[in-house]
Amino acid sequence: MKSVTHSMPEGHVRRSGAGRRLLSAYRTEIAIALAIIVIELAVGMIVPAALSGGNISNVTQAAAPLVIMAFGVLLVIITGGIDLSVGSVFSLTGMVTGLAMAHGYGGIASSMAGLSVGILIGALNGALVTFVGLAPFVVTLSTYAIAGSLSFIVTDGHSLPISNPDYWLLNSGTLIPGLPNYALWCVLLLVAIEFSLRKVVAGRWLYAIGSSSSSARVIGIPVNRVRLAAYLLSGLFASFASIVSVSYISNAEATAGSSLMLQAIAAVVIGGASLFGGTGSAIGALLGALMITIIQNGANLIGVNSFWQGTVTGVVILIAVLVDRVTKARR
Amino acid sequence: MTEQRYLLTARSIVKSFGPTSVLKGFDLSIAAGEVHAFLGGNGAGKSTLIKIISGQFERDGGTLEFDGAALGASVGGHVAAGTIAVVNQELALLPHLSVAENIAMPRLRRGTARYSERASMDIAIEALSLIDPHFARESAGRLVGDLTLHERQLVEIARALGSGAKLLLLDEPTANLTAAETTRLFAVIRRLIADTGLAVLFVSHRMREIRQIADVCTIIRDGKTAVDRAALDAITDREIVECMGQSVVVDEAAASVAESAEWGRADLATQHGGSDGAGAQATHVTHRGALRIERDGVTIEVPAGAIVGLAGAPVGPSSLIDALTGIAPAGAWAITRDGARASYSHPCTGARDGVGFVSGDRSNKGILATLPIVDNLVAAARVVNRRNVVGRAEIEQSTQLLEALKIRAGSLWDLPATLSGGTQQKLLIARWLLLRPKLLVLEEPTRGVDIRTKREIYALIRKMAQQGTTIVWWSTEYIELVELCDTVLAFDLDGKPTEVLRHADVNETQLAAATGMAA
Q: Residue A248 domain-assigned?
């Protein structure tokens, strides 16, 4: 009898506690979502065209590759690592895909060739970081340089046309009516990654390693394998982002990814991840990427000198991180 | 059947770190169903062996047999498989994750399996309830990063106890526990042994605890087995201490302390001689101050050179320590020295005003792990004297200090990690010896330290007090406070100061009554 009277209120407390935990767990994400709406509305007041359906679908289409890339970078950052090679992987993937097409391969075969770039470089990054024990910054800085220069070498710096009808699947075609495929991929990846991070043991291992890799090792977590997987996925996602991108730009260029690496890291950080590891979410990374794209789009529409756009983005990153810091400290 | 079968047999284990050879052919056998005390001085190799058994270190030589099968040289597998659980001195927790997840994590072996917060919660509450049901309900959802050191220790122990392992390796698990928690821990260990027949390897420096819980002991000395599986009923404390190689160290320690103090005075004279006139005179002038501490109507006032003990559950002493050193605002505490307010906005201001502090959290708030020993020794002096370059004087001072305190180090440029835990502790106190502060605040300076080093530290503290440094010392071992303190400030379980006990009244029963914690 005693246990019955005890368990009732306790169960109640726990449930409401879980709700509040969920709300507080996604606090950063909710704040960013609100900020995005505010920014978009503000831009819309100056340039009404910003809120048109056409512009919004432009923004999402432009954001899709960054979102996908940010997902990969997120996995590495949660473990406390960093992947600087993603921008170059993005460029090289486009070039390899274009080259394969120029040699007469079909869309699927060429894309596979492109994806193998990310898998190879990701695996190389992961192996050097885990088994050789080199610092992630140094390893990925090197592969960034190598892949970046290879993307010029493969065509001697020329850009390559990409035209393949199969690419409706990756881009503006619709498998689900009303939802263009590029957005569909982002949503599918978002759900898959967020679920894995929260509800699958391997996802929790990523956080554990980022929180303290030495503790994770003592506990018996396969630290090396998990970190290797994170770098491999980061490379793979960067390649996938590139294929999504070239499918609508219809052109592969050696410099395509050069600005994306910092944007992807910024997106992850805006989304609440710490570069020291142990925190971060896929929803946050997606919102961070959207925010960066919206700011650039808004600045373009308003007619801000393109030289100033870096300053605007930089200030926004600082504000986002400071707000996050202040609210966390107050808690 | 003539030879008893052991759960774990270690034979001729060899391990060195660089040129320092730690284990030199060590043997150990543990039988199922026993609590096996593992004894030895600081730096004798206890922690190293535990890390080899649990697969955190690779061994250089020797064989390990566990549960009838050989363990490879580079393992970790048995911890992963849940058959061996370990509580290291450095806790292996994940600060960004919840208590529940920290406890459940070692049981989640398949990466592709579903993770359930609810299931983790249940596992954690069950495990934590073994030690403290109230703490279990209250803490399971909190982040480990928000817990105090003491609470983290409970989490770490609960994780090992609840893991279902056949062998528990406990490296000073009671170091951060209250007496009541230690008693409960022992009760749980006995129950688990009765129920599951597991074996426990137990490291502690507290003789009374060892006698309470352990059946047999193995003593390690200089990396070799000095005593192999002696029944604790058949060996006296004195014999144990002798086997650890620490019987005749008291006088020696006192002598070395006297030397170091002599040298410290000479150093001060040369340092401040220019500005303060004759150095010897200056030292007398600086140590006039009487310390007065007041809160909630409880007042304690002592002359310079007194040793003040703090007793009670961690919350009370740590609030006073924070106020004294400037780690946190003084709050309800009113602290004066020589009648002038002596509370600070920052530990740096405190240090420059003559307040030294040795934290109980050695690895996070004491040792600068990536800097060589010399930088660790002069760290406080640099802050106080606003010096930023390693000078030749610093190197000379450090060399003398190491010699005077008999700290065995390969070189001044080695990292502190090459020293044992107890030696690191001496190094942290030595850091302030250079400066001869007016007030030295110590948080459990003898925790996890062997008997010999303990005595050295006692002598060191007495000597500093004689030279006019007021000591404020928090200890959970009441016997220390009884032996060394002139005055003891007792706190209740909520952290409120309750009573000031003068030397004549200070005994363990008094302290237990005043603090609500059994000694």
A: yes
Q: What is the full per-residue pLDDT of chain B (519 aa) written as tens digits?
A: 335 688 999 999 999 876 677 888 999 999 999 999 998 876 678 888 998 888 888 889 888 888 888 887 655 566 666 788 889 887 889 999 999 999 999 888 888 899 998 999 999 999 998 888 888 888 888 999 988 877 888 899 899 888 888 899 999 888 777 778 888 889 888 988 998 889 999 988 777 888 889 999 999 888 888 888 888 888 887 788 778 765 433 444 444 444 444 444 434 333 333 333 333 333 333 446 688 998 888 888 888 889 999 988 777 888 899 999 998 888 889 998 888 888 888 888 888 888 999 988 887 888 998 898 888 888 888 888 877 666 788 888 888 888 888 787 778 888 888 887 788 888 899 889 878 899 999 998 887 677 778 888 888 888 889 888 999 999 877 778 888 888 999 988 777 888 888 877 777 777 777 776 544
Q: What is the CATH number of the domain that holds A168?
A: 1.10.3470
- The whole-angstrom distance between A204's CA and the closest CA on chain B is 8
Any bridge partners for residue B294, and if so which? B299, B334
CA distances for B497 relative to B309, B312, B488, angstroms: 12, 9, 11
Q: What is the helix, strand, coil percentage profile of chain A, to 5?
A: 80, 0, 20
Which domains can be identified in chain B, with CATH numbers?
8-243 (3.40.50.300), 250-515 (3.40.50.300)
Strands B61-66 and B8-17: antiparallel
Where in the sequence is the domain holding A168, given as residue range(s)?
29-330
A98 occurs within a structural domain: yes
Of the candidates A18, A219, A217, the residue with the CA atom closest to the CA atom of residue B103: A219
Closest listed residue to residue A60, CA positions, set A204, A174, A160, A172: A172
What angle (nearest 5°) sits at the alpha carbon of residue B178, between those of residues B175 and B184?
A: 100
Residue of A nearest to B57 (CA): A218
Task: Write out chain B residues lying below 8 Å of A210, CB-based.
Answer: 96
Query: Which of B297, B285, B291 shows the shortest CA–CA distance to B323?
Result: B291
Cβ separation B94–A221 shorter than 8 A: no
Task: Assign residue A277 a region (left: φ > 0; alpha: ψ between -120 and 50; beta: otherwise).
Answer: left
Give contacts of B 103-142 with A, CB under 8 A.
Answer: 105-106, 108-117, 121, 137, 141
Tell me how far apart the alpha carbons of residues B302 and A299 are, in angstroms, rounded to a whole number: 68
Cross-chain CB nearest to A220 (options B80, B91, B137): B80
- CA separation for the pair A137, A134 (Å, rounded): 9
Give the other-Cβ count within 10 Å of A276's Cβ.
11
Q: Which of A75, A211, A276 would you mutate first to test chain B, the one with the most B CBs within 10 A? A: A211
Q: Say what the ipTM of the complex is.
A: 0.84
Cβ neighbours of A18 in B, within 8 Å: 117
Give the one of A199, A207, A222 whose C-beta lies nearest to B96's C-beta: A207
B322 touches B328 (CB < 8 A): yes
Check CB contact under 8 Å for B115 and A222.
no
| Interatomic CA distance for residues B61 and B35, integer angstroms | 26
In a domain? residue A154: yes
Left, alpha or beta for A124 (phi > 0: left; psi -120 to 50: alpha)? alpha
Nearest-by-Cβ selection for A216 from B88, B94, B113? B94
Q: Is any Cβ of chain A less than 8 angstroms from the Cβ of B82?
A: yes
Residue B216's DSSP bridge partners are B36, B231
A11 in any annotated domain: no
CB contact under 8 A, A204 and B105: yes
Domain tally, chain A = 1
